Amino acid sequence: MSLDSLKQEATNHHTSPQRLRELAAINDELRRLVAANPLADSSLLGELAIQARNNKDVEMQRAIVSNPNTPTQWLIGLAHLFPEEFFSNPAYDLSILQNYNFPHSFGKKFLLKLVCASNAPTSFLEFAAGICETNLKIVIASHQNTSRKKLLELCTSGKDIVAEVAQLRLDCPNDDITFWDKVALNKKRNLILFIPHRLMFKLVQLPKISTNFLNAASQLEIFPEILNIIANHPKTPKELLDKLAKNSLHFIAEAAKLHINYAGELGTGWRNLAESKIDRAQLPILNNDEEGIELRLWYAGAIDESTLPYLNQKSVHEYTSTLLKIVSSADTPRPILDNLENHPRVSPLITECITYLKQRKSIVFDLLPATLPINSTKLSNNFAANQINPIVADLNTLFTKLEDRKWWFKIRYIPIDKPTINLCLLDLIQTSRGSRRRRSRLENILMDFDRGRYKDHSPVFIKFSNLEYYGVILASAPSTSPQILSKLVEHPIQGVRVLVASNHNITQNSLDNLIDDRNPEVRAAALANPKLDSMLREQLASLENPNLSSLDLRELANSEHTAVRAKVVRHPNVDGSILAKLADDKLIVRLAVAKHPKTPAEILTRFTEHQDRRLPLAVAQNPGAPQDLLIKLATQPAVRGGFYFNPLNLAAVKSLLTQEPEAAIPFLDRCLKFPDRPSFSRFLVLMNPHIPSSFLARYYKSWFWPERYAIAQNPNTERDICQQLTQDPNSIVRAAARDNLK
After folding, report:
1. pLDDT at position 733, please?
2. Are 650 and 296 in contact, with CB atoms under 8 Å apart?
3. pLDDT category, 379, cuts 50, 70, 90?
4. Helix axes 508-515, 520-528, angle to 10 degrees
5. Backbone angles phi, psi at 378, to 5 degrees
């Protein structure tokens, strides 16, 4: 059954409760629809409420509060998050609050959110007025739904402030804007200062609020969120903007200076102006946001490469470690490094890092001037063809001794009578991709070397950076044994693998592995090795022909060489029958099958249950995988428990964004961690030109102009939203929206 049919079932008011439970078990999107269905039973809604709380699913929580079948404890527990939905729920009854020992069971913030609700019933306001303190009584006295009888009672309450507000409300019973205008102009007690912060935050957002009120609210300088809204409000006059432009907080001052009433209309050059103005300081609410969120969004495909320079902002750090992690990743394409290296917004430190990485990826290893940090012994490049480099001989010997898995217990007894590198480094060369516990143990051993614990054997402490240097020595030496070269086939540094692929001592089996290496330079070096089997070279060359027939591909799929069969899978003319035949081949071939968009769904489903985690990951990276399978992989818990995204989740989300962006939205919310709050992470997502329009439509009314700018310039933004943004109070946002409509 298609997903659309399942959605219709989930929203249909004639679907049975049992069927709704079955639908809720399929995916998050259907769970939200089921949560809003009034036929969902209370036990199911209670289970969904727990899931929504754990996953911070705001939309599902909203649906649960609106459902009349929601259990009372959850209805009250979520009321402060969605007070309007709570009061609109047909199941609302004042008695349920009284039965829950209201207000003693709830705090002041809970009550404030309820009395601030625009649809708070008169009965609730009258009840709350009898038990609330002065600040909350001010809100009740100002509420349009408070009865005249209760207002007259508050006028004689003995609290002068409450009485004044109640009298003003009696004078303006049905005109909210005039009432708040009178509150703002009241100089007797300056009533504006007594309005609770939460209510003020709500009032300054009203489009019809008077300029008098905005001027009065600007006195609340201890609340930067309120000042920011005023700086972005379309009604804010130039005189007030002049004052806000001098504010000590950068994001408020910049918003005021870019206001249309202050700066006027912009013509050309708005994009460069936006890039120079936008940084993390423009979105201050989550400046302490975890950098892991942005890294997670990058690997999930939610951050476009064109926005990477924004990660390099000196306003928060000298450099951003997230950007360093992205550029240093082995999976980062070379064109991204080229673009960032010359970008004016990228700091010299990042540029220097990129230059080094590009050199390393180009195999620029200058061995001639290098000096071994062992007794100042220099590495000579002048050995005769039949002469064995003594350092390589030492390395070969020690590799043999390290075959014992418990070598670290015997480390102090291994005789070291020649200049050599320490044993820990050798272990790192072999197991640099080991577990966290193993890496921690290696670090401790290296620290022991540094402290002189093994002085009797005189080893010299060698830094981890020398891992590359000694890998090069082993991989390039003509006397390195085939056994050692086979260990270096999995070396984490691609330059070492290139040298291994070029070494004449390499075995055919090792060459076979390197031919299918993830790096094209390694593959090219392996194919150029003279020891490569001539038949293998001929078959691989034939697969370069894009016009090979299915018959030819079936014949090559029977090749004895793994590299040939793996390359058959990647051929553009391969069909489903060949892929099905190779689905039970060696792991390296199955990985290629798992990533192919033509692979049948039943085979991909079988791969997701494989014990080797690389196969499910390869399926998640397949943009042609069925949507329900990708959703399953995106929600699969981490191996160590908990949901927080692992590579499998992120790869599935990235494929969903490519295949069905709308289905990826719930996972973007989880990646953001706080989808309901402005953040720099959310700005980066909104800048992505591949983000669906429904996600952009959520935030076009944001009170932070960089988010509105991101939406105004996004090609996926709906035309009517762009049209509204052409009247935005921010001059850059207006200019971007106008250009987007052309």
Report:
1. 95
2. yes
3. very low
4. 140
5. -85, 145
